[in-house]
Amino acid sequence: MLQTLSHPYGAQAAAALDRVTRGHVADAVEELNALPAEAAAELLRLAPPERRVEAFDRPELHRAGRLLLALPEPLRAPLLSDMSADRAADLLREVRPGERARLLAPLEPEPAGTLRRLLAYPEGSAGSLMTTEFVSLPATATVEEALRHIREVERTRETIYALYLLDPRSGALLRTVPLRRLITGRPEQRAIELVPDRAPVTVAAGTPRDDIARLFARHDLLAVPVVDAARQVLGIVTVDDVIDAIMEDDSAAAQRFGGMEALDRESLGKPYLRIGFLEMIRKRAGWLCVLFLGEMLTASAMQHFEHELEKAIVLTLFIPLIMSSGGNSGSQATSLLIRALALGQVRLGDWWRVALREVPTGLTLGGILGLLGMARIVAWQQLGFYDYGPHWALVALTVGLGLLGIVLFGSMAGSLLPFGLKRLGFDPASASAPFVATLVDVTGLVIYFSVAALVLSGTLL
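^ thats the sequence. predicted structure below, dont judge the formating
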């Protein structure tokens, strides 16, 4: 059977299977990711059932949904049943609805029902991230009873960071007891006495993962229980689930910020060299075309000032300087505001406070660059490097005032554009550096030539 592995791995099939079977599961996943999909599926088919579950339980496994469908049907149901519930739900989200229904059909009622409930939660919410495999006991349990229960159920739980103590009558969550507190407690002591008399930190099933991440950071959590309106525990979100979600979000945001459509879930985990050519073109071409059409307005702006350019060719020397300075200031402001919005440091209602802050900032930065630009013209003129003509002082003033206005506009546009996109329901990361630069390029030329028309009126113009 090993000879069925695809070329060029067929000759090394036994060694590959040995590495996948006996090595650390992280190394096994890396080995599977490096193989063609058919070869990886064959290795997983030949691997022991427990190693197959370990591999699919790792979020780092690429093409997990495709690999699951490539396995023989008798192997799929046991695999989904033995996987952690949250990871199995993530895997099922990668396949089409029809295939998902076929995968769920052979499962026992309990695991199938759990997975359907998890799949019903919106993607990116606490409900979609949580696992239903947690340890709970009535609040009357002693330390000895709790530790005995943990030893009995340990193999059926994804991870055990804490014990959740429930009201014996209503089932509502009363306390969260960290595992280290249980270990140090006296056997006869009630577990609820090990923690302060205060309500534990919880989240609702609909809480967005950005809010969950901030909660983990603020309270230094390893896991947080997800509760319903009656404070009954639906599941727990663990720190590794949050980290995986943040890394996925950061990858997508970085791609959008670079002026391209974010890759889908399957492609996000792939190394750059393994992303398909057509997929890369499809994700990049759309944004490039939009930006190109936007840059066409730059040509329209220059055509509008065609006669001024004919009279004062010297102004064209500073167009790249003007455009890049405005785009750079806008990109800086955008980066700061997107990050601040993501961390909850500013909210939509704070847009006016941001505007008031960016006005003096833009004026100061524009003034600094304007003085540098003027100093450069003066130095080149006085040292004989270049002759800007008899009205070189007015040219220097034009460049200085133009930079002041353009940097101010760039700072304002870059800081307020994320608010506008968020208000319209778009991801603020879509206010990418290329998008802001395109906007500032067009308006920057209008500002520059308008300043030139005022300053140089009656001289060069």
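Residues 6-11, 259-263 have pLDDT under 50 and may be disordered.
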